[in-house]
């Protein structure tokens, strides 16, 4: 089994524990587009208590990658995803975080064709 497949399986298992009903195909598609960031212990996770980290998610993913306009709805969506994944959950994996943002902004077609 490849490292990528292992990561995708791990993220799908975590989504299963949280009972969020996320499509395994979407998780795989988002994860594949992320590149090597998923293999680094630090960069593979999002810290909801780190404002600089949340700003990076907003600027690098929501604005640059998804092409969304900056505004308070982006910050609200990030806060919502932090809640969905659980404030005390230390496994807020970036791929899962991004997948939930893709769903939140109805951009699944960008990943699933």
Give the SSE layout.
Elements lengths: L2 H16 L5 H11 L16 H15 L6 H14 L8 H11 L3 H5 L1
Helix pairs in contact: 1-2, 2-5, 4-5
Describe the structure.
This protein is mainly α. Helices cover 64% and strands 0% of the residues. It has helices spanning 3-18, 24-34, 51-65, 72-85, 94-104, 108-112. Helix 2 (24-34) crosses helix 5 (94-104) and helix 4 (72-85) packs across helix 5. The mean pLDDT is 95.
Q: What level of helicity do the residues show?
A: 55-70%
Task: For the record, give the distance between the C-alpha atoms at the N and C termini, rounded to a whole number.
Answer: 25 Å
Number of helices: 6
As a percent range, the share of strand residues is under 5%
**Overall pLDDT metric:** 95
**What gyration radius follows from the Cα positions, in whole Å?**
13 Å
Largest sheet: none
Shape assignment = globular
As residue ranges, the low-confidence spans are: none
Question: What's the β-strand tally?
Answer: 0
- Listing every helix as H and every strand as E from the N terminus to the C terminus, the arrangement reads HHHHHH
| Estimated structural class | mainly alpha
């Amino acid at each position: 089994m490849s490292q990528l497949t292992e990561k995708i399986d791990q993220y799908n298992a975590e989504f299963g524990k949280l009972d969020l009903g996320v499509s395994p195909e979407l998780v795989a598609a988002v994860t594949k587009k992320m590149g090597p960031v998923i293999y680094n212990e630090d960069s593979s996770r999002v810290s909801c208590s780190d404002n600089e980290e949340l700003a990076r998610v907003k600027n690098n993913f929501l604005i640059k990658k998804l092409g969304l306009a900056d505004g308070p709805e982006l910050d609200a969506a990030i806060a919502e995803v932090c809640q969905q994944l659980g404030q005390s959950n230390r496994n807020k994996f970036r791929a899962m975080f991004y997948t939930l943002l893709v769903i939140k902004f109805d951009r699944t077609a960008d990943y699933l064709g």
